[in-house]
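Hey, can you fold this one?
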Amino acid sequence: MQSRTGEFKRKLLAYITSIIISVLLLGPPLWMIMTAFKRGKDVFAIPPVILFLPTLENFINVVTRTNLLPIVYNTVLVTVLTTILTQAFGTMAAYSISRFKTGGKFSMYSTLFLRVMPPVVLGLPMFILFNKLGIYDTILGLTLAYIAFLMPNTIWLMIAFFNEIPLAIEECARVDGASRMEVFMKITLPLAKSGIIVTGIYNIMGAWNHFFYALILSTDNAKVLSVQASEYVGEYVVRWGEVSAIATLLILPPIVLVFILQNYIEGGLKLGAIKG
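Sure. Predicted structure:
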């Protein structure tokens, strides 16, 4: 009887803890989405309004008062280019380090150099460099900055996935006459598919939502949604409705993407716990 009571208490504590964590994690984004559909008087109402008549006024203001289409185009283009290039070069670098120990430990750990440094430290040097190279406020410049920011984590994540793939599989293919490139393209990459998808989602989210480099390295031609959202924050007033509306537009695509690819994400997370 006491054991059942103890088990019930543990389960109850686990459920309560899970509910508290869920509220803490989901509360802010849900409140932001609610704010996006509120009128001005409801946004600033005290006490806060929970039940209200939804409106699309904030979304309409965001779309009509700014030239939003080029900004969305820039955001999508930079995200796609960054993800493809980071994933391609990061995957090849990770495979080289995993299989051939390229560069030794120095090369392996030096990949984290850009990642561990705060972006604010690199902002001014990048601003000066990109100005001299003529790529300031361009899609190319912003893409290069994002690649530099996301590449270290991509390499380290993919190293872990490649390390879990048994080397014997590749050796058997080599004995059967397959070239090193054929082994990589036709055997290793398919086996690492879940890892590639997981790191790809990480890169998509990193490029889609990144703010600092976009703020420092662009003005008009390469402006993205995250920077546009900041323009609704003034010195004396914050237009919370518009900020929440554009922030909602920013978070919805990654959420949809995660739901679509959740099976691959689950498989990729399990891969690191399975020995070949």
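Residues 56-271 form a domain with the MetI-like fold fold (CATH 1.10.3720.10). Let me know if you want another pass with a different chain boundary.
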